[in-house]
């Protein structure tokens, strides 16, 4: 029987999934994964920071927050030409989606106009486009949609009952409002969270429950493993058990069967065996390239070798200029 798309998961149901024997959980996740996806295809994206540092937020995990001494310097928005050169290089390296991140709490309208110009230029290269710029108003979302933006990333980060332990400069509802503006504009949502920030398993269940019970499942769901950066409040947090991270991937796959689940930040610290377990648990998207905003990422050649060893292939993405496409079967720290 094909797994149903649900939006009514209870916390108890999600916690029971987390508590399954590891092999049973992976079997269930892989079974559901095969119902909605090619089990050996992985969507490949590249993420570029087009405006780095100087963010006024206090997200406890983020090296781009101006208030933390992390060595990240505030920079201006990159030019269209500079971004295009990076986008072309990403396409040449095999990426099908190009994601652009800017360290703003909420961009000004003039900022959105500049990003819209960049989006249009990147889209013309034949790449899917994604951006993460902070909180958006409805009209700003409409502007980005008109420019050809396919996906907008805006993570909820953690469970509602742990959110206040990590961020104080905005609340969960601010994030949910931006997601509603993005959906209303007709763009696809890329929305996930970070695990390993000191939260409990019940709170990890709460993160995934919140995502699964949104009005529409995010088309892309990034599951980030905390990258600890010296100078941020979460530096020194006890590392999350690797098998617990795999469980988080598997539960995300079971709750959101048709979504692309992205193995996102933290991959640099994962060995090949752990990444292989994540793919078996239902992850089918990665970021490709040397940097993930301001933290390291496995290099392209290593990823290619890993794909060869596992018999994986890049997911093919149909693309027509001027239209929005999902890289999944219809019923995504980025």
User: In DSSP terms, counting alpha (H) and pi (I) runs of 4 or more, how many helices?
Assistant: 10
Low-confidence runs of at least 5 consecutive residues: 290-297, 318-332
Which series of helices and strands comes N to C? HHEHEHEHEHEEHEHEHEEEHE
Distance between the termini: 33 Å
Main pleated-sheet profile? 10 strands, parallel
GO molecular function: biotin synthase activity
Keywords: 2Fe-2S, 4Fe-4S, Biotin biosynthesis, Iron, Iron-sulfur, Metal-binding, S-adenosyl-L-methionine, Transferase
Function: Catalyzes the conversion of dethiobiotin (DTB) to biotin by the insertion of a sulfur atom into dethiobiotin via a radical-based mechanism.
Pfam family, one: Radical_SAM
